Amino acid sequence: xxxxxxxxxxxxxxxxxxxxxxxxxxxxxxxxxxxxxxxxxxxxxxxxxxxxxxxxxxxxxxxxxxxxxxxxxxxxxxxxxxxxxxxxxxxxxxxxxxxxxxxxxxxxxxxxxxxxxxxxxxxxxxxxxxxxxxxxxxxxxxxxxxxxxxxxxxxxxxxxxxxxxxxxxxxxxxxxxxxxxxxxxxxxxxxxxxxxxxxxxxxxxxxxxxxxxxxxxxxxxxxxxxxxxxxxxxxxxxxxxxxxxxxxxxxxxxxxxxxxxxxxxxxxxxxxxxxxxxxxxxxxxxxxxxxxxxxxxxxxxxxxxxxxxxxxxxxxxxxxxxxxxxxxxxxxxxxxxxxxxxxxxxxxxx
Length: 350
Hints:
Blueprint: H1 2-7, H2 10-23, E1 26-31, E2 37-43, H3 49-57, E3 65-68, H4 71-81, H5 98-105, E4 137-140, H6 172-180, H7 184-188, H8 192-221, E5 227-230, E6 236-239, H9 253-265, E7 269-271, E8 274-276, H10 293-302, E9 312-316, E10 319-322, H11 323-327, H12 341-344
Parallel strand pairs: 3-4, 8-9
Antiparallel strand pairs: 1-2, 5-6, 7-8, 9-10
Helix pairs in contact: 3-4
């Protein structure tokens, strides 16, 4: 009761609040729109844009769109630390002219970002590997769009980007914090090192459960003969069962070693039913290898003239090869030589 009486005084309350706010810590997270936690930082003091920028700068590839409660503060702090980081227009979607501000307030202007769905071709210099764009925007969270007094912040609304409609879940972070609240008591009783270890462990299992739930949902939709796996960017893609790796037989041990080195250095990756031919090159050691039955079947499918010529079959870096690209190498009737297209495809491309 005495504490309640003391805190009823506004002057006393403000003094106590300043001390607690200045010393209260917590943890800051960065999540994807589906709620998977990508970054975590433990704070000794109250969170600020600096903490989230520290996390973003630790990433190998800076994201094209960052959604934050105080987007203007994040963009200003980022451009002070690293000029031009959020550009163009200081991370806004449009140039902050009176006309653009008026149209954005009335909902009469939209900013299309097609590279969010299809990678930009040709990609910008230092562009993101998934989008190909080098632009970086700082946008306001839906729940905090009305908190700003700056008129130019209307150009940071998510609604201005049609490609983001229905994609951003602004509640995912709040849902995470709500679910983690039950762990506060025992975590606060541990030492700092134990606290960090347990928190990371809990979030790891949280991410695994999130991913497994999505995989289970997709498995109910896909046919039974279609498998799911991750591509080289960690995204789940649907794919056909993989064919076995050919062993073959070379003329001597040197050719066998060369063939083994070729397989190791090719760094092949699967993208659904698309094969990634990253750093793959022709090599004499693989010319004499015999194809397995499964590979013969895949080769026949690739050269089948009755199927769609636009079907995607392989990927080299960011370039997707279709069936017509393989036809352009020449079919049996077009080849007058010892090596035909079947020898080009025997390097484990399927």
